[in-house]
């Protein structure tokens, strides 16, 4: 009923979810409904546990039911500004909230704040991505899986810059070769959804205060290998949708029939309300067998 009502509204009402790739609304049922939760930044402060719990309940009360949560990274508040005890507490808190309040399966992508890069901890077990991967039970920082006729590709977009002091958004040669192979070996009829923490393509970097005569695009804000990735996607029209977070602002860019959705942040402005015009929220997406999808950003 609800879906039919929503589809009937597609004549242009803002409240209706947007349908992509082809003008006609899908007549069939979606094959999968997912929620995209990104930038949760959980810690035991700022009312974060209670607000995150409310968000999880909101996701699980969706009708039709959400079947899978895609977690876009920045799972914990920040690995880089805390001591090891505080970091451990953030991960423990995340696990206990999820165990108590969430019965849906969740897949993860690494965010920059999930990775410990203290210079003076190089060589220790906590250094780099290994610690977060252990917490999230990830064998590799990037991977793929198939579900309901769609292929899901989870990327690791956070890498140290050439001077090895800070991160930038990129895949690196090894992961790019892996991505090429993944797409080459995926049947052309299988729609592909890609999730990264840092956006591959976004327009929100152009929303900045105090711009005099140019915008500044930082390599940590958006992928620096965007052109290369887009060129690869162009060879594989079954790539339909790219989800990201990182910027805590919601935007949607469609380029070469690929939709790039930066889905705000569960934490909004790090648990202090809205960041600019984007309120805390998450994405809900209905995926259809033929590669079409509907999506909306939901405030909880
Ligand atoms: Zn974040």
From TrEMBL:
<dbReference type="InterPro" id="IPR029052">
    <property type="entry name" value="Metallo-depent_PP-like"/>
</dbReference>
<dbReference type="Pfam" id="PF00149">
    <property type="entry name" value="Metallophos"/>
</dbReference>
<dbReference type="InterPro" id="IPR051918">
    <property type="entry name" value="STPP_CPPED1"/>
</dbReference>
<dbReference type="InterPro" id="IPR004843">
    <property type="entry name" value="Calcineurin-like_PHP"/>
</dbReference>
<protein>
    <submittedName>
        <fullName>Metallophosphoesterase</fullName>
    </submittedName>
</protein>
<feature type="domain" description="Calcineurin-like phosphoesterase">
    <location>
        <begin position="32"/>
        <end position="248"/>
    </location>
</feature>
